[in-house]
Amino acid sequence: MIDHQVRVHPSADHLPREEQLAWKLAAVATGTQEAEDLDPAAGAMAANRIIDNAAVAVASLRRRPVAVARAQALGHRTSSGASVFGVAAGTRVSPEWAAWANGTAVRELDFHDTFLAADYSHPGDNIPPLLAVAQRTGRSGADLLRGIIAAYEIHVALVKCICLHAHRIDHVAHLGAATACGLGAMLRLDTETTYQAVQQAVHTTTATRQSRKGEISSWKAFAPAFAGKAAIEAVDRAMRGEGSPSPIYEGEDGFLARMLDGPDATYTVSLPEPGEARRAILDTYTKEHSAEYQAQAIIDLARTLREKAGPLEKVRSVVLHTSHHTHQVIGSGSGDPQKYDPTASRETLDHSVPYIFAVALEDGGWHHERSYAPERARRPATVELWRKISTVEDPEWTRRYHDPDPARRAFGGRAVITFEDGSVVEDQLAVADAHPAGARPFDRAGYTAKFRTLTEGIVTAAAQESFLRTVDRLAELGTGDLTALFPAVDTNAVAAHDARLPKGLF
């Protein structure tokens, strides 16, 4: 790896483009190896993430935000576009709108992959726009694979080195840059074109984190889809010769100076050397449970504690000792009263670790639909327990959250349950069971089982098998085979659901 020092430069410096971060990101992407030279483990993991994305997308097809995005996309049909989850196989829409619909479907349940470091991210959000453009431009499975691995490489590098959330900037700003780089790699664009697209994508996808604060709305699902759509449009403009705000990162009125640490800030971004294997995708991990990633280990911990706790109506208090991030973002340290509101939206509840721990402790597990049902959130015993749960930051958990060694990094916490008679039950868990360092790390069998579970009753057993066989030979897929990466569903049921939606402009 090469460490690149990044800082703000006055306009009078005339920073050469080859010294700009956007250029260096583009150079890594456009220098990505041929598919046959890619790391085999990285390629296998990319295939796993295609399975994971399809599973959660299909499971969300009849949720309102996904139906809205799909309806908007269907207003932009074209004979030579890209597929949309949940519609007839022959239907095509413009690729940026396919990315919009499919990106929303993938993100809606908060149930796909994650990477946490200086910032946080869902790198699987890169896949919908890449797949849409691959279909539109007639790319092969090997081309798609190259693009996915490049996008993950850039996304992970940015998330490791540049913190957005400290400045309340939403993490899709890194996603836009990564997707533009992945598209550059997949389409074999030159560095100059990809560089311009990266700058446009960063400029247009910088937004605040209010989408994840207080009354969290459906925009949380739309936000990465918007970034993917914007990245496609940026690449299209750059391919037509259009330039960008430059230098987008280092400029005196640019991203770092005005959105992040200010004009005196410096960052170190580590990127692979030319010819070095792109393996960053192996640092990322998926979710076994449909909730914010920091809640994954907490759900598994609650499952264990349920067997030890005894009568929950006798609980006096529960304190979760955890990292700064978990306490401040999804815990009581956020100061958000909505995190204790039984009428809160699903999007808010999946960012409330007190709610999640209460339900998981009562039920001994978690379900992506039942655990969020309004009647479940309003159950009197649950509300009573929920409001006894608080979080506190423990400096040791914060240190472990940011440990530079992925093998020692921890995203869990310690739960202390105090009962009315003064007795205490406690336990801790560093990482989720499904984490690579966890008790049951997800492998291909885990991804396959998740896919079968989430698509049961929506995708026939035969169609499930056909999809999984297609993914197994991803690198061999020809230019017309990528439609098979969309599992066949009962489109009549989806269309009947969509017909009941309020109409918009399209």
List keywords for this structure.
single chain, about 500 residues, alpha+beta, four-stranded mixed beta sheet, two-stranded antiparallel sheet, 9 strands, globular
Q: State the low-pLDDT regions, or none.
A: none
DSSP helix fraction: 40-55%
Q: Rg from C-alpha positions?
A: 22 Å
Give me the strand/helix succession: EHHHEHEEHHHHHHEHEHHHHHEHEEHHH
Class derived from helix and strand content? alpha+beta
Strand content: 5-15%
Supply the number of helical segments.
20
Strand order of the largest sheet: 7-6-8-9
Gross geometry: globular
Instruction: Please report the total strand number as a whole number.
Output: 9
What kind of sheet is the major sheet? 4 strands, mixed
Overall pLDDT score? 94
What is the first-to-last residue Cα distance? 48 Å
Could you write a compact summary of the structure shown?
This protein is α+β, with helices and mostly antiparallel strands and 506 residues long. The protein has helices spanning 21-30, 40-59, 64-73, 95-107, 127-137, 141-161, 172-187, 191-204, 219-239, 255-259, 296-309, 324-330, 346-349, 353-363, 374-377, 380-386, 395-401, 444-455, 461-472, 491-498, and strands at 2-7, 77-82, 115-116, 120-121, 266-271, 315-322, 389-393, 413-419, 424-429. The mean pLDDT is 94.
Structure in words:
The structure is a single chain. The protein has helices at 21-30, 40-59, 64-73, 95-107, 127-137, 141-161, 172-187, 191-204, 219-239, 255-259, 296-309, 324-330, 346-349, 353-363, 374-377, 380-386, 395-401, 444-455, 461-472, 491-498; strands at 2-7, 77-82, 115-116, 120-121, 266-271, 315-322, 389-393, 413-419, 424-429. It has 506 residues and is α+β, with helices and mostly antiparallel strands. The chain is globular. The mean pLDDT is 94.
